[in-house]
């Protein structure tokens, strides 16, 4: 579904990504793991059209989307749940969800998508008129996921979805990602909880200093001594 080929990205003179290549197959969960500053979020933002690479290609369903503006990438079917939620705090829950449905691809299915979001996260239906900024951290994360789903994406990139959440909410969010995948949604998961993300993932890539250093099946990488020592303290 998605191929990143030999991607280079710079912030000024500093190289954030170096010759990065990954492949996302339709219907899978792909984890991208690594330490802080390894380039995970830079990769997500480049795919989403928020950053322009210096070299390489991004192919989505055999369409070259390298350098496309982010709204065009979204309308093609690539959604993003950004790190830190990035909701609109002064807008209501319902208004935040409406923003997600503004894409041309999503307008016809707006009612069906809203029903789906409320079925996944009933608390959002209960608080639809409430200002989003007054929600708890977990509820804001649910809203961020719901807003993305309102855009009817075929692939969603989740950037640190469990960051700063209570353990019980983390489990709920990760179960939701697993369930969405079982319904057919292709997922890219950047997650600080390496053990959990590798258990969920069909495939995974390890980024170090902007380069892919390991790749393989999630469970296989979880058993790799290099991964266990570097990220699991074993």
Explain what this protein looks like in three dimensions.
The model has no long low-confidence stretch (mean pLDDT 92). The strands form 2 sheets. The chain has a 6-stranded mixed beta sheet, with helices on both faces. The chain has a 4-stranded antiparallel beta sheet with strand order 2-1-4-5, with helices on one face. It is an alpha/beta fold.
Task: Provide key terms for this protein.
6-stranded mixed beta sheet, single chain, 10 helices, Rossmann fold, 10 strands, globular, 4-stranded antiparallel beta sheet, alpha/beta, 234 residues
CATH architecture of the domain at 1-77 and 154-164 and 193-234: 3-Layer(aba) Sandwich
Largest sheet: 6 strands, mixed
Q: What is the CATH fold-level name of the domain at 1-77 and 154-164 and 193-234?
A: Rossmann fold
The CATH superfamily of the domain at 1-77 and 154-164 and 193-234 turns out to be P-loop containing nucleotide triphosphate hydrolases
Helix and strand content put the structural class at: alpha/beta
The total of helices stands at 10
Q: Which regions contain 5 or more consecutive residues with pLDDT less than 50? A: none
- Summarize the helix and strand pattern as letters: EEEHEEHEHHHHEHEHEEHH
In whole angstroms, how far apart are the ends?
35 Å
CATH class of the domain at 1-77 and 154-164 and 193-234: Alpha Beta
Instruction: Give, in spatial order, the strands making up the sheet with the most strands.
Output: 6-7-8-3-9-10
The averaged pLDDT comes out at: 92
Overall helicity: 25-40%
Strand content: 25-35%
């Amino acid at each position: 579904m998605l191929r990143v080929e030999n991607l280079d990205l710079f912030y000024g003179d500093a190289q954030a990504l170096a010759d990065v290549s990954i492949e996302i197959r339709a219907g899978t969960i792909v984890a991208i793991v690594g330490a802080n500053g390894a380039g995970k979020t830079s990769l997500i933002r480049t795919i989403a059209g928020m950053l322009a690479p210096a070299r390489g290609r991004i192919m989505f369903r055999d369409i070259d989307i390298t350098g496309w503006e982010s709204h065009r990438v979204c309308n093609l079917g690539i959604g993003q749940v950004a790190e830190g939620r990035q909701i609109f705090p002064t807008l209501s829950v319902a208004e935040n969800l409406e923003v997600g449905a503004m894409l041309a691809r999503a307008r016809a299915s707006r009612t069906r998508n809203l029903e789906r979001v409320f079925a996944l996260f009933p608390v959002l239906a209960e608080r639809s008129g409430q200002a989003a900024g007054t929600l708890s951290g977990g509820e804001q994360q649910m809203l961020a996921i719901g807003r993305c789903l309102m855009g009817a994406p075929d692939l969603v990139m989740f950037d640190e979805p469990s960051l700063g959440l209570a353990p019980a909410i983390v489990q709920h969010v990760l179960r939701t990602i697993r369930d969405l995948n079982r319904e057919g949604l292709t997922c890219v998961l950047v997650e600080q909880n390496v053990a959990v993300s590798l258990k969920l993932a069909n495939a995974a890539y390890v980024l170090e200093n902007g380069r892919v250093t390991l790749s393989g099946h999630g469970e296989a990488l979880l058993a790799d001594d290099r991964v266990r020592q570097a990220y699991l303290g074993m």
